[in-house]
Write a structure and sequence with these properties.
- The structure is a homodimer.
- By secondary structure, chain A is of the alpha/beta class.
- Helix content of chain A is about 45%, strand content about 15%.
- The first copy, chain A, has a domain of about 160 residues: Isopropylmalate Dehydrogenase, CATH 3.40.718.
- In chain A, the strands form two sheets. Chain A has an eight-stranded mixed β-sheet, with helices on both faces. A two-stranded parallel sheet of chain A has the order 1-2.
- In chain A, α3 packs across α5 and α6 packs across α7.
- At the A-B interface, α8, α9 and α10 of A face α8, α9 and α10 of B.
Chain lengths: ~290, ~290
Amino acid sequence: MYGQKDVLVKEIANKKIIKENSEIIHTPDIIKDDESPLSATKSGKESSMWKAISAQKVNRADISLSAGNTGALLLMSRLILNTIDGIDKPALAGLWPNNKGMNVVLDLGANVECSAKNLLDFSSMGSALHRSLYEHEVPKVALLNIGLEEHKGNDVLKKTFSILKKSKINNFEFSGFIEGNQIMNGDVNVIITDGFTGNIALKTAEGTANFITKNIKKSLNIFSLLLSYYSLKKFKDKLDPRKFNGAIFLGLEGPVVKSHGSTDAIGFSYSIDMCNKIIKSNLIKKIKTNLII
Amino acid sequence: MYGQKDVLVKEIANKKIIKENSEIIHTPDIIKDDESPLSATKSGKESSMWKAISAQKVNRADISLSAGNTGALLLMSRLILNTIDGIDKPALAGLWPNNKGMNVVLDLGANVECSAKNLLDFSSMGSALHRSLYEHEVPKVALLNIGLEEHKGNDVLKKTFSILKKSKINNFEFSGFIEGNQIMNGDVNVIITDGFTGNIALKTAEGTANFITKNIKKSLNIFSLLLSYYSLKKFKDKLDPRKFNGAIFLGLEGPVVKSHGSTDAIGFSYSIDMCNKIIKSNLIKKIKTNLII
């Protein structure tokens, strides 16, 4: 654990298992949430982020997990860990529930603009991640678009579609285009898009879910709520954002996971579990052996 | 009413008021839903769309309303009605409920790629539309982006932001950037984006709303549903898509409205009401006098 030693020591004082299984390395620099990635990187060489990721470089760590400034984490990861040979741009992948299980969606905001080559990389990396987390399912890749026909969308999407259609792919099935209203229907489970569109879609979905939930809750009187308490709780549990806390930075020689800054211990434990699966399944090797050339 | 005469005559046989206040003009060509806009335009000069929009050109009609093929309707509108002087690209605007009332959102899919000039045009056209439909509210324009700070997003958004920030605007307030999760919070009411992003956001919101509603409904037992019947119904009514049925094609010398193809008589009546407000408020003149040069 890299961080403020006095804070961490106090936090784990009563946590016997954590205490016995961890070492605390003090890092004096603190990176603020609103700091620009560049300034954080320049002046934060003694920060927890920089030190943790550097530990991967010298094989003292397999993976880094941080709840800090996303931009700084991405930039530091790129600077310290090399990009995998053949990959132009790393991407931020996240989990998004669907009717049948869980989607892997990328890019969620690391790259505002993407080429067809980038989207192809995202397809194979996202499929490798899906296999790592849900090993018994076949990754089904779809490109997020504004129509289902081959001629719809921008040039990058059309080009990516035509390459994927004729490529021999062995680690996923290609399902073509999907539209925004199909993200959650469960017919596909790896959804590919540029970082701008992915970020807008994810946040629009969050906002809509909050709007609907809040309004329906307001509409239910106390007796209704009590009568359906358990089934409503079950649904709420299923969509509990802590259960899919953790965005994965894909495309580097080592894995880095970003936890939501405002999650709690339970949310953070799910991220640790995700880290564990990523390492156990050897995600980086999976990515390297499945790139579409 | 332009369309298949025999069908229409039968439909309004018992509708006295409609019969007395309308004239039926038979149009033999039928445009199919899956027909390409180009082929529809080439071979559909005797279709209801072509004829209705042409009637605007010779002052026999003030506005056209159609529930047919969107692409064909957009292309025909552009071909028949001139683009307003100073506007490069017309856009498709729609209504999207928020916590306090209704947003006007554009572009919803007419233009996959947009320049800063396009987004500026959309801002003033969207504000004019908002004033036409909700005359007692001040239009508050926001640009949909992946962050709130001035340096976030792509070059087009940054340029649009900087122009709007220093422009003297008199028909709306400029509220800066918003992210996807703020679309429905009601702080702004005119949301500007390119047609690709707007279409993805709208459909993602639709899909999410359906997902949440369906799952919560499944979680409520029959007694809960009955106990909260009226307040749930009130919420459902508020979000009834028929109430904001109708996308408006903005930027041409005449207004054209597209109804959802699968709506019913009630949904269509809301679109007619929208057409009425657009004409009464003189939307086209409002747009012309408020362009940001």
